Structures are given as C-alpha cells and as structure tokens.
What does this fold into?
Amino acid sequence: MAADAALHAHEAWMRLALREAERAFGMTGDNPWVGCVIVSPRGELLGRGHTLGPGDHHAEIAAARDAHERGHGIVGATLYSTLEPCSFHGRTPACSRSIVERGIARVVIGMRDPHPRVNGAGTLILRQAGVEVIEGVCEPDVRRQLGAWVLEQHPDDALGRAQALPEQQRVARLAEIYGVDCRTMEAFFAAHPRCLDRHQRPAAPPSA
Ligand SMILES: [Zn+2]
It folds into this structure.
C-alpha cells in the first residue's frame, strides 16, 4: 500500500510537470517541450520550469532557477521531469550533470529521451552519481504530449514500433501512442518509405 501511495504522489507531481510542459509548446525550436517540477522531501513545491528557446535553459535548469529565485534550496529534493535529463553538452551544458552538482537526491522521469546520444545515458549519469532514478511515471501521457516532436526529430522510434505491429494496425496504434491523428501518421509513413522498408526487410544476403 505504501508503494501505491508513493506512486500516486509521483503521478500527481508528474501531471503538474506535464501541465508545465504545455507552456513550452511552439517555443522550443527543435528541442522537446519538457516540463519539470522540484519538490522538497516534505512534499512542498520548490520550483517549476519548462524548456525555453533554442540555446536557452532546459526545463530542469529553469525549474532549479525558479526555486532559487523563490529562495528555496534544492539539496536533497526530488526533481520530476517529463523527459529524461540530457547527458551531453550541446548548446547548453548537460542537465544530468547539473542535477548531480545541485545535490538533487531523486529524479523521476516520464520517458527516456529517444535521442540516440541520450536514451538511458542521462539516467546512467544520475545513478552512477548516487541519485535515485524512477522511470516511466505517466509514460503514456508523456509520449502522447511529446509525440509530434518524436515523430519529427526521432522517426526511428516510431519506425521501430511500427515494425512490431501488424501492418493494418500501424496507423491507428501509432496515432494513439504518439497522440496525433491518423492523417498525421499516414503522412509520416509516406515521408519515410525507405526507412520502413529498411526496418521491415531482413538484411540482404551477401552477393557472390
Ligand atoms: Zn537538458
């Protein structure tokens, strides 16, 4: 029962992070619209944030700065992020390293970042630094919220799922998984015919 209550609390905070992410729609360039909240060990909201423009803060850092501006320390706190914190220094420093440096004790994520350079690498950095990581909280909701970004930026994620589905179910099932309409999903498959072939076809035997 205690575990159920804890999961329930995690889901409630993740739903707040999902609402925070809505504020980033259309403002993030090719970055995902991520939402984040930071919560004290006593269950108080310390800070909230969402992804800002390209090259500007990611959601995790925006939330940490929000907490700081409100005068709250975040050492020992729990950070909820709809997407796995990034693991490499791109236009901004890696959030997973920044989270470790800020002394966050626990990170709860909705879904892993399908970016091939992240996809588990962010959670690994956190775990290796002794941060507790809980994954997959409200994952279906997060995937639907980020669906259009995944389809645009990481089509292999959807093409891999398509491979595992009977052909006649692909459009409807993936539209549901990624929170888009069937017409969008049909357009996606029309735009990636070769990729789908590559996923479908067994490797060609060596000639000669
Ligand atoms: Zn980041």
Notes: Residues 58, 85-86, 95 surround zinc ion (CB under 6 Å). The chain has a mean pLDDT of 92. Residues 2-22 form the longest helix (21 residues).
